């Protein structure tokens, strides 16, 4: 009879990443006091391994090392091994990733850090093979060296741990400087322009990340400065990404990043936050240019998320893996013979011409240098050029390619799917709510607002503690971890956008309540800005404040914009003062490296104005009132706020924004009140009149 598989302490966890390691022979502990107590009692260092469930190199390190008995023996005998899911505990990850970057000059996952029993780090790195390889030290070699130092040079280890701990403290304290002004926006644009890839879009060389909040900043700079160059950078990048293999041309949605500068060969994992932020960028580009291609891409992203990344209750899952059947990208790549079998000769010839499917394969494995004989569907040319070459009407070409895509998609659905990380994170759900609410406005599509509302209902029901404290993660019936700054800021942003999509005052009320709780739990009253963890959070080596806008924007950057918008909506100048304190707390860093703070600069763009405050007055069902709201929704107006003073929402809205009480229908007709640059115009009673005002230059203070 076969013995039952080994199960370690992680078997009782909810995190998909931790559960992936529950059968390792390594005696893993989850992060917590129980592990630290064992380390103290037995005088053993802590081997901390941080990753996430869809991380390719995390899988590799597990397979090569953590599943091996010889590695497990070293770890179990000499260390207390601790596993952390970075997506559940971004606070822990943030601290020790900073350590790794300080010690090695780089970071990434899997993150490997060795700590004293009191959690002070003295060694850090990322991926280690079991034995030394290509100049990279082997894990077993590293572990034996650490054991030797721990047993024979304890004083030096303790000194190093203390020095590292003290050395990282300033990195978490903010960086105040002078007042940020329009020159910071110009400098960011100039730096981005100098790094722009003229041929393929994006910034820098390989690997290339989408960084959609850089693109949304550039859209704002284009609108402010009339800088056509900024718009060209955005459009070139958005079009190149959509044509490239970084976009899933079969099932939609974007992969994590491109390993080359051409956007052809992606790292195949799909993250919810990427879908949300990219959908926002494509929606805003559509509003700015009215180019239907951008609207179509935004809708394709939504199709993917609502089909594959949405729970039965309406909340959004976190990610899909790059690997399936132990091989990265296997789910997504094709042999030409497979396409021909699925489509037949004639249809396959058209599909393969359009998507560059070749018999010998269309991409090179950069790691091995070989052409693998498989294909990543991508478009080398604009479809209109293909239609001209083949003498097919563009509409007919689009119809035939869509028919073929559906058949290829159905065939792919029969493959073994990549692992789905089905935990629900409040922060990433907040971003997806933003994206869907923006789509609802731009496309006048209530179904997107309904989907966003279902996710919000789930968060409200499952991720709020009895005392009202927001929580960060839900999975398998359990909500856990006091929510972080990102959770509060991103969800408040989602509520603001959902209010503008539905004009349900309860969403505005909920956003204000979240922000007030954010102020209480996270604000730094001395230096300004917001800590990443609440005052009720676990005490770590430092209480960090984050402003860098990385793969996702920082909580402080989003909080600044939310505070500014809520301040304008409600007339509460205290909220705008809190936003000003964010700029002051981080102005030094933003002035030095503005391109690393693109979302903060988008908030600064709003703060510098000129802004528009718009109030629609009238019954919700009134056709003219709806048309006026539509004129606002379809335009790219990033420095506007809008309220709808409708009788059925008046009680709540007048409590939140008392100034709208005096804004009433004109001679019984629905009206729009528009204030620009601190001056208010006479109300108008038709959508056509409002459109003329919105399209006119905003008057200066002197005019």
Could you characterize what this model shows?
- The chain has 703 residues and is of the alpha+beta class.
- The chain folds into four domains: 9-172, 3-Layer(aba) Sandwich (Glutaredoxin); 183-326 and 421-608, Glycosyltransferase, CATH 1.50.10.10; 332-414, no CATH class; 612-695, 3-Layer(aba) Sandwich (Glutaredoxin).
- 50% of the residues lie in helices and 10% in strands.
- It contains 26 helices and 19 strands.
- It has a five-stranded mixed sheet, sandwiched between helices. It has a four-stranded mixed sheet with strand order 17-16-18-19, with helices on both faces.
- β10 and β11 form a beta hairpin.
- The longest helix has 20 residues, at 573-592.
- The N and C termini lie far apart (89 Å).
